Amino acid sequence: MERRRLGANGPEISVLGIGTAPIGSGPDWIDWGSQDEAAATAAIHAALDAGSNWIDTAPFYGWGRAEEIVARALAGRRDDVLLFTKCGTMPAPDARSRMDNRPEAIRADLEASLRRLGIDCVDLLQIHDVDPETPIEDSWGEIQRLIEEGKVRWGGLSNHTVDLVARAHALAPVTSCQEQFSLLAEPDDPGVPGFVRAEGIGLLCWAPLASGFLTDDFSVDALEPDDFRRHSRLAARGEEIEQHRVAARAQGRTLRRHAIAWVLDQPGVTAAIVGVRNAREGAELAMLAGQ
Fold it and tell me: Which domains does the chain have, with CATH numbers?
């Protein structure tokens, strides 16, 4: 699988990474419906065999379940993969989640991730989302301290505006930004791709398949009752999705291959994150990457 350098001084990564939000689904976090751990493990192994060399996870995905599954799946294969995780997303009694990017919260979140992943250092630690109560300089300063202590190799931001990325980058280099990017969605701040390209910051794209809507065999009716996609606004964009499907067929491609190729061709994009839930989806990453 093709590899690209993440940012100016980051690692070389495959153009498709292994997304783990879906495999975090479990009894206490069922956003994506039920998920069998054996199938998740098979998905990770197949994706690595297909050429992916990094996994993107987060404490939020199943409130630790995804990280624990990743750790067990990588037993004996840790040297094959770079581990990217996130920090700052916390449970909330009256909401789906809340952000807490205070330095002490970031440190505690990372320490818990290291325990779940069974490692001493994470390759990329990303602040998961914006905490309006904590200055970015405080949060980013803590990321730098964790790098200096050898607990993190590189630092990144996820779902942050150009202004916040610029403020962090002025304090210490930002290796990467992670943003939603697909044929159906662009980053919340559309200026991010241009800014990171100009500054030599890597760009990781989440939901390049629009959470499955940009696939030929996707059906909302086939989803489990608690699956969040049943209530997604994307469900009302069937006509637009069909137009993309027609365009894909005209090029002799599946819709998912067409959608991934479009994302990877966007200026400044380093790589895309594709969630996999079984061995077939993991193995398919080689095809989606154009191999």
Answer: 3-288 (3.20.20.100)
